[in-house]
Specification:
Layout (H helix, E strand, L loop, with lengths): L1 H42 L6 H26 L7 H18 L1 H4 L3 H24 L5 H20 L9 H8 L2 E2 L2 E2 H19 L1 H11 L1 H6 L4 H27 L6 E2 L2 E2 L1 H13 L11 H20 L4 H25 L1
Antiparallel strand pairs: 1-2, 3-4
Helix pairs in contact: 1-13, 2-8, 2-11, 2-12, 2-13, 3-5, 3-6, 3-11, 3-12, 5-6, 5-11, 7-11, 8-9, 9-11, 12-13, 12-14
Length: about 350
């Protein structure tokens, strides 16, 4: 009996230490966010205006939702290198469906939205099946998917922008508000809370963390690792599709910028940088969606500063790469010390 009490006490102590660690990471993130906001207020005219703040949160919501999908995959000890290409490809497809496809143009806009969401899920399911059941490394599968999507998009568009957004998406991203808060921001908050609830308070969420911590032990304990992994990549594909529609609503006509590695590199690097900045690691089994949410705000603010200072896409990509590298190095050193 005393042995049981000691074990329960030890578990409470370990849980308390974990909560303190997580709370400390949140405080560091919030402190960094406040500091960056003050710096941005110095460099950017009208930074503290209501309109600028709304625009900042709208921009952050697109990358924030995309990063949530990537974070879930990373918690399950995976990575999805195809989310950037998926986001750009689906945005371009939606633009063509809305403006250049007579069959779809005669139906309500929700039909096109549903098709894009299903395509996003399908891309994720393909990734998940190959990774979970055929045991192909995630980097190989998702890199192949990224390359394939880039090639298909370039062949179909010949490298030129096509189509355009729908007025409903444009209004949702520019003027739609609820009690003065941009609708897309509220949507982002709701998604964040829903995913937090699923990961922290449901059996499914606990299984994702278990797989990320030790896939072999998770399998031995009775968790269907293959099904969970497939569903995780499907969620990442869904969130890439949602981000593609939000992006289309913002830019109206998606610009097809092609890096040597493929399209959508900015989206991909951002989807990796934000979870890493928010406390999710590539080791799996660690991190919180709340941290990812705060990191999205921090990352979006820094991007705003860089754009205001005249940095182009290349400068932002360099910054994003440095964030991923530096934060990963710091976390690795910290883990070794612990």
């Amino acid at each position: 009996m005393s042995e049981v009490r000691r074990e329960m006490k030890a578990k409470r102590v370990r849980g308390g230490i974990l909560l303190l660690k997580i709370g400390r990471e949140y405080l560091i993130l919030l402190g960094a966010f406040i500091a960056i906001m003050l710096i941005a207020g110095y460099f950017i005219p009208d930074f503290w205006s209501i309109n600028y703040q709304k625009e900042l949160f709208r921009r952050s919501a697109i990358l924030g939702i995309l990063a949530i999908g990537q974070a879930i995959v990373m918690i399950a000890k995976g990575v999805d290198l195809s989310v950037g290409a998926s986001t750009m490809t689906l945005a371009i497809m939606a633009a063509i469906f809305f403006r250049e496809t007579p069959i779809l143009m005669q139906y309500p806009w929700l039909v096109t939205v549903l098709i894009i969401l299903l395509l996003g899920i399908s891309i994720g399911v393909i990734n998940g099946l190959l990774i979970a059941f055929l045991k192909i490394p995630p980097v190989v599968v998702t890199l192949g998917m990224m390359t394939a999507l880039s090639g298909i998009t370039l062949v179909y568009t010949k490298g030129f922008p096509r189509g355009g957004s729908h007025k409903v998406l444009m209004e949702f991203m520019s003027t739609s508000e609820v009690i003065g808060i941009p609708a897309v921001v509220l949507m982002w908050v709701v998604v964040t809370l829903a995913i937090w609830f699923i990961l922290r308070l449901t059996k499914y969420g606990r299984e994702i963390y278990a797989i990320g911590s030790n896939p072999v032990a998770a399998h031995i304990s009775g968790i269907h690792v293959e099904k969970i992994l497939t569903s995780v990549y499907a969620i990442a594909g869904l969130f890439a599709a949602v981000s593609s529609l939000l992006y289309l609503g913002r830019v109206v006509v998606p610009a097809l910028s092609v890096a040597p590695a493929g399209i959508g590199m900015d989206f991909l690097l951002s989807s990796l940088a934000i979870p890493v900045l928010g406390g999710v690691t590539f080791r799996g089994g660690e991190g919180s969606i709340v941290g990812v949410f705060i990191a999205s705000l921090l990352y979006g603010t820094i991007r705003g500063i860089l754009i205001a200072l005249g940095f182009g896409t290349a400068g932002i990509l360099i910054f994003t790469g440095l964030v991923i590298a530096l934060v990963s190095i710091v976390k690795q050193i910290t883990a070794r010390q612990q």
